[in-house]
Amino acid sequence: MAAAPPSWGVEYTLSLPGEGAARDAAAELSVMGHRLTAVRVHDHFRFVPSSFWYDQPSMDPELEGWWQVFSLAVHSGYERMALEPFLRSERIRVAHVARAHGGFPQGCAEGHAVTLEEFFTRDGLVHEQADAHVAVPSPLPRDPARPPAGPPWKRSEIGGPADVVQAVVAVAERMYGSAEDAPDAVGWLLDEEFAFGEPYASTGDFLGDLADAVAHQGTCTDATVEAVPFLVELICDESVAPGSRLVLLGDLLRLAASGPAAAVSLADRITALGGAWEEPPAEHLTRRAIGSGLPRLLSRWEGESDGVRFALAALTALCGLHDQRALSGPAALPAPAGSSRADVASLVAALLNDDREGLATALDRLASWSPGIAEKAAGPHVDPRTLGLAVLPDLVLEDVTSGIAAESDLPRLPTTST
After folding, report:
1. Cβ(120)–Cβ(36) under 8 Å?
2. Contact, 286 vs 413, CB < 8 A?
3. Which residue, 83, 94, 88, is CA-closest to 140?
4. Which of 46, 119, 132, 161 gives a 20 to 30 Å CA spacing to 296?
5. Three-state DSSP class for 4?
6. What's the half-sphere exposure (Cβ side, CA atoms, 13 Å) at 303?
7. Which of these, 218, 166, 160, 212, lies nearest to 409 by C-alpha position?
8. pLDDT digits (tens, 9 = 90+) for 383-396
9. Both ends of the chain: CA-CA distance in Å?
10. Contact (CB, 8 A) for 69 and 13
């Protein structure tokens, strides 16, 4: 007889506007069956003399005077992956508790329950229920079935690493001449240390390093803005393999969506603090730079494959531009009714046409089979258009990159939210 899987724990963090609200939220979580619940003033360790953080400036001054709730929920009887649909519903439920008391969820951590309980900080502990478990329904909920993807795309070669590196360096030399004249995110390609360094084992490794140089861990900076024209030039250069060009186009899609993605993730916090979303300058300027390069990319429309046209239409929507080629693109795709591609194409079309009704319908259809989108849409403060823009890159790239011939050679995509 197989041993029962170890109990799984989830530690939630909530931010509330005061001690009373924090205690009320903690009491509600305790009633839900959470084993340990503590309340502490925000940046608690800044007030503990023995702490490294004692008397240090706040890392989040907007939350000065706020309180936090830390609560451990324990689930038993199932492996972690089997619990995912249920845990998703629990995250939605805990977020509702935070909003109901004027606050917002600040994230959660997972692990074996024994470990999380051992290291749970008990300062401010207000509720403890030894051996408590949050009830898990039987049978466990399952994720909805995903529609078929749609007809296969025309296969695109990604190219060997040496050939792609040579092509990319040639474009950098043509644009900038030397490392001294290149943007910070590009200069390393023209540096002697790079030229005489170890060759790349895969094209994916090189393209991943290039993407990280342009936007480290996906974060836009001034260097990202300066590097956008270089990425546009690469995508337009015929010496870069078609599959690699599609990967680079995917980089632009993610960069253009970085502002909307942040707005979705911070929607509850912004509302709780009584503020309005202001896109960080680097994200805004990055998207403007991509928009400036779009006419060049779209000028190649007639000669592009359907997969590239799909990505270009999505990029046009993300940049808020109106181009007839992109507007007509989704309708011309091989996207039969009932396929996931048809649902994504409907989202692109609604965003391109500023169609609010079509946007609502597209998001509802996507949420019916994409649990990640359903979870994001459950937040009442999330703007539908912003949500559509935020989830668009993963939806499109998950589809079009299936047409890249050497799929195992691709850089690892970020965990999809869809």
Report:
1. yes
2. no
3. 83
4. 161
5. coil
6. 7
7. 160
8. 999 999 999 999 99
9. 37
10. yes
The yes-or-no verdict on residue 6 having pLDDT over 60 is yes
Residue type, 156: S
Q: Residue 213's CB: how many other CB atoms inside 10 A?
A: 18
Q: Taking Cα atoms as reference points, which of 397, 399, 411 lies closest to residue 249?
A: 397
* pLDDT confidence of residue 414: 43
**pTM summary value:** 0.92
pLDDT attached to residue 415: 40
Residues 50-80: pLDDT tens digits?
888 788 888 899 999 999 999 999 999 999 9
Q: What is the DSSP letter of 17?
A: S
Q: 196-233 pLDDT, tens per residue?
A: 888 999 999 999 999 999 999 999 999 999 999 999 99
> Residue 418 in contact with residue 373, Cβ under 8 Å?
yes
Helix H or strand E encompassing 68: strand 67-75
DSSP-derived 3-state class of residue 252? helix
Mean pLDDT for the stretch of residues 225-245: 95
In contact, 404 and 307? CB cutoff 8 Å:
no
The CA distance from 259 to 390, in Å, is: 8
Cis omega before residue 334 (within 30°)? no
Predicted confidence at residue 412, as pLDDT, reads 47
Query: Measured between alpha carbons, how far is 382 from 263 in angstroms, rounded to an integer?
Result: 8
Cβ neighbour number for residue 323 with a 10 Å cutoff: 17
Output the CA–CA distances (angstroms, integers) from residue 46 to 41, 122, 172, 259, in the order listed: 10, 16, 48, 31
CA atoms within 13 A on the CB side of 35: 23
Q: What is the pLDDT of residues 85-142, one digit of tens each?
A: 999 999 999 999 999 999 999 999 999 999 999 999 999 999 999 999 998 998 999 9
β-strands 67-75, 104-112: how paired? unpaired
Q: Output DSSP code: residue 190.
A: G
What sign has the CA pseudo-torsion 174, 291, 305, 400? positive
Phi-psi region of 394 (alpha: psi -120 to 50; beta: other; left: phi over 0): alpha
**Residue 413: what pLDDT?**
44
Spatial strand order in the sheet of 125-128: 104-112, 8-16, 67-75, 36-41, 125-128
